[in-house]
Amino acid sequence: MKRFLLILLLLATPSMAVQPDEVLDDPILEQRARDLSSGLRCLVCRNESIDESNAGLARDLRLLLRERLVAGDTDGQAIDFIVDRYGEYVLLRPTTSGSNILLWLAGPIMLLIAVATGFSFLRKRSAEQDRREGDGLLSDAEKERLREILKD
After folding, report:
1. pLDDT tens-digit readout, 61-104
2. What does UniProt give as the signal peptide span (predicted)?
3. Which domain holds residue 39?
């Protein structure tokens, strides 16, 4: 029974998809590769990093990243190479520059527009209500009679 529970616990732990034949001999380069691949999106699995994905394309991206690091690229150069080849969608954390700034700012801008529209609507409604009450449509006697009717 204990063995069964131990096997279940071992199977329940998260495992990385990096295959043993992908691991670099240099532990420093391997750690750099792991750090970088955790920020790259698998294009097949969507919101999963290439480090966690078992897809064939994720494996190809892991190998490509390791090739670039072994060739002497810096972290930035390796990421830029992959982004140039596959597009900015490959980044799990997109940049906040260029055309992406519009996407980053769209949410707060829409919130401000919604708040301004709601505030404007409430002000107009309040002004309309004040205008209706203050127009003198009813005389004092009529207002008194209306209050008596509403009490009943």
Report:
1. 989 999 998 898 898 899 999 999 988 888 888 777 777 788 88
2. 1-17
3. 13-90
